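Researcher: Structure prediction, please.
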Amino acid sequence: MAALVVALVGAALTLAFAAPANATSGTVTGTGSCLNERTGPGTGYSVITCISDGTAVGIACQTTGDTVTGPWGPSNIWDYIDYGNRGGYVTDAYVYTGTNGFVAPRCHGNQPVVGNDYPYSCVDCVDPWNFYTRECTSFVAWRMNHQYGVSFTNTMGGGRWGNAENWDSNGRALGYTVDHVPTPGSIAQFDPYVGGASSLGHVALVASVSGGNVTIEEYNWSYAYGYDYRTISASTPSWYIHVAG
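Model: Predicted structure follows.
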């Protein structure tokens, strides 16, 4: 988080200490007790553990999420750390890194499956991104916005994403990379009837890639209007759409 500022008593002098720009570690600071490590980049995610003030943590990557106000003001940056042999997220608002900005790569690497964080209970209502709630398209739009900080909407870029079957062609038309190479954070797209998809196709979010397999998170596949994740052959989806970078 922000550079530590020390006001010297009796002197009109403020010292700002900044860490190197390539810093990949930080120290939990200013919580008064401990900092919750969570399964995702937001205060609504489950707590894994609580990390005591003064603990040094290694930051593998960073992403955006819920805004939290800490000792140096508000921040929407979340740090993905490996603490206690399990990865998780902590708000950067309480991690001293020497700067307000990013100090590690953006999170697009293999990470644990986040789980069912989707917030909407209404079936086929219109979500904030103009998709129908609890459909596969709405879930992916939610994750693009909430986990990866991409302002993904049905009309993003001036196109119309529409049903899942259209996402590959729309992505190409808007200049996004659409290929057969899965990466964590990419969108797995299934053409109609491919791999068990319906006549409208299907989309899911790639959580991780291992060898010739991908683990994907999705809605409205194994359970009607519900969440699941599964590991499948990387060759099963028709395309991978790279929107998150």
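Model: The chain has a mean pLDDT of 84.
Researcher: Thanks, that helps.
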